Amino acid sequence: MMTITDWDAHQLSEAIHSREVSCREVMAAYLARIHHLNPRFNAIVNVADDEVLLAQADVCDAELARGHSRGWMHGMPQAIKDVAHAAGFPTTFGSPLWRNTMATEDGLMAARMRAVGCIVVGKTNTPEFGLGSHTFNDVFGATRNAWDPSVSAGGSSGGAAVALALHLLPVADGSDFMGSLRNPAAWNHVFGMRPSQGRVPLWPSVDVWMGQLGTEGPMGRSVRDLARLLHTQAGWDPRTPLAQTAPLEPVDRPVDPQAAAQALRGLRVGWLADLNRHLAMETGLLEVCGGALQRLQAAGAIVESVGPPFEPDEVWQAWLVWRRALTAPRVSGLLTKPGAREQIKPEALWEYEQAQGTPLRALTDASAVRTRYLQHMLGLYERFDVLALPSTQVWPFPIEERWPKRIGDREMDTYHRWMEVTLYATFAGLPAISVPAGFHPNGRWPAGLQLLGRPRGDAELLRVAAGYEAVAAEVLASRSPWAQ
Fold it and tell me: What's the pLDDT tens digit per position in 69-123?
C-alpha cells in the first residue's frame, strides 16, 4: 500500500487538490519521515519547527476550502539548497563564516516555487561554497548516500538528491556549476537536470554577465516531476538580461509511456564515452552506461560511438581559467575578515591562489577556446539529436575521503579533475540530464548516464528522457533499501 511520501509530486498535487489528503496530513507525513531518516543521512539542515510548518499547512487547507489554490505545489514541503536564499532561513553556503547569515527575502527560484504553493521546511546540505562533488562542511557535517550511508552522496546538490531519493521531499531544487545536479542525481538514482544557459535565471547575483556557468535547476524521481519543476523555475526576469525570453513548453499534461517510448524511434545518439580515453574511468561505469544505451537502441534509437572533434585538454585548461575567474572573487571577499583563512576549506583557498597573477589575456584566450569548442559541438548536432556521456567518472567513494586522488593508475591533479566529464555541457551552455543507468555489481552504488541536448533544447531533451524512462522501468523501479 502506497503512503503519502511514496507518491510522486504530480500524484501528490492531484491528491491535495482533489482533497483526498489535507496539506496538514502531507506535512505531518513528511516531517515524520524527516525526523526518522534525516538524523542518519543529514540531507536537510536548519529544519523549521514542526508547529510552524503545520500551521502553514493549515493555512493552505483553509485556502483550498475557499476554492483557492496557489498552484501545483500548493501545500507541498520543499527544502532549498543552502547556497540559495529562502526568507526566514540562514544561507550558510556550508561555511562557518556564514553560519548565522539570515535571508530576509527569497532568491528568484525559491520565490517562484513559493508562488505556486510550496512550503519551505528547511535547506538542503551542500559542500562549502558549493565546491566539489562531495557534500560535507564544517557547519553541518557530511550528507550520506541514500543507498549506502558509508559513501559520498555527491554534490554540490547532495542534500537535495538524498532527500529526494529517501522520499523526504517530493521534488528537489539545486544548482549546477560542474555537475552539481548531475553527479548526485546519478549516485542517488534520481533524475537531475542542468537546464540550458539562461533557462533558469539566477537572482540575486553580484554579476549577471559573466557568472553564467552555474545555473539552478530541478531534480525529480520522474521526468514529469522534473519537467514540471523546471517549468516553475524557468522564465525571463528583467534583472537577469541574459536569461532566455522564449517560454518553456508546458509540461502539465500526463506522459503516455507508450508514446514516450515511440519517440525514441530513429533518435540519433552520439556516444562520447571517455573521449577516446582522455577521461579516466573506474571499472564498470562505461559498461553500465552501455546497458542504458542498449535500452535506447532496443526502442529504435540509433547509437553511434564518436570521438571528440575538439581537443579535450585545451578545453580543460580554458575551463580552469573561467572557473578560477568566477570562484576566486567569492573567496577574496571573505579573506578580509579576521581569522577567515583558517575557516575556509583548502580547495577554496587553492582556487583563489591559482587565480592570483592570471592576466586578463588568459581569460580572453580561454573565451576564444570556449567559442571554438561550441562550434565543434554544434557540428556534432548536425549528425546527432543528443550526445551521451557517463554522469560520473567514479563510483561513490568512502565518505571520509575529501575527493578521489586517483582513478585507476591515473593521478588526479586537481580536487575536481575526477568530475571533468560534466564540464562539457556546462562550457557550451547545453541542457543536460542525468538519468539512472544501473548499479555497481555490489547492488548498492547507482550510476547515471548524461544526455546532452541541443542549445536551448530543454523541451526536446525532456522528451528523450521521458522515452528513456518508459523503456527503463525495471531499473527505475529499484528503490533504496533505506527508503522502504
Answer: 999 999 999 999 999 999 999 999 999 999 999 999 999 999 999 999 999 999 9
Nearest to 481 by CA among 183, 196, 255, 189: 189
Listed residue (444, 430, 424, 433) closest to 468, CA to CA:
433
Give helix 458-471 / helix 223-233 axis angle, nearest 10°.
160
The Cα–Cα gap between 245 and 333 comes to 33
Q: Tell me the residue length of the chain.
A: 484
One-letter amino acid for residue 44 of the chain = I
> Rounded CA gap, 247 and 235, in Å?
6
Q: For the chain, what percentages of helix, strand and coil (3-state, to nearest 5) are there?
A: 40, 15, 45
Given a cut of 50, the residues of the chain with pLDDT beneath it are: none
Burial class (CB within 10 angstroms; exposed 0-12, middle 13-18, buried 19+) of 302: middle
The confidence score (pLDDT) of residue 3 equals 94
Angle, CA 190 vertex, CA 187 and CA 191 arms, to 5°:
115
* pTM score: 0.98
Q: Which domains does the chain have, with CATH numbers?
A: 7-313+362-483 (3.90.1300.10)
pLDDT score of 260: 78
- Residue 261: its pLDDT value, please? 78
Q: By the 8 A CB rule, do 120 and 99 touch?
A: no
